[in-house]
Write a structure and sequence with these properties.
By secondary structure, the protein is mostly helical. The protein is about 75% helix and about 0% strand. It is elongated, with a radius of gyration of 18 Å.
């Protein structure tokens, strides 16, 4: 069975906002703003990125992983894929 990647377009608004936050941080650095203010903006951007990551992971579980439970081989492959993903980004 062929699967198609789900759409993630609902995250584009948030990603555009993140892009704006990063541009703002660059401007703050150029303007030699206070470190705490820069760090605050970086934390906000990181939090927003984590939200996008969470949204995409949820969709992956609902769409891609759920579809893979049709055969045992697909199921095992998806479980391994998730294990590697979590291992790679374990914080």
């Amino acid at each position: 069975m062929e699967t198609h990647a789900p759409s993630h377009t609902e995250n584009l608004t948030r990603l555009n906002r993140i892009s704006g936050q990063i541009e703002g941080v660059k401007k703050m650095i150029t303007e030699k703003r206070e470190c705490p203010a820069i760090i605050t903006q970086l934390r906000a951007a990181r939090s927003a990125i984590k939200m996008v990551e969470s949204n995409i992971l949820k969709k992956h579980l609902q769409h891609c992983v759920a579809q893979s439970f049709i055969s045992a081989a697909d199921r095992e492959a998806k479980i391994e894929e998730l294990k590697k993903l979590f291992d790679r980004f374990n914080e």
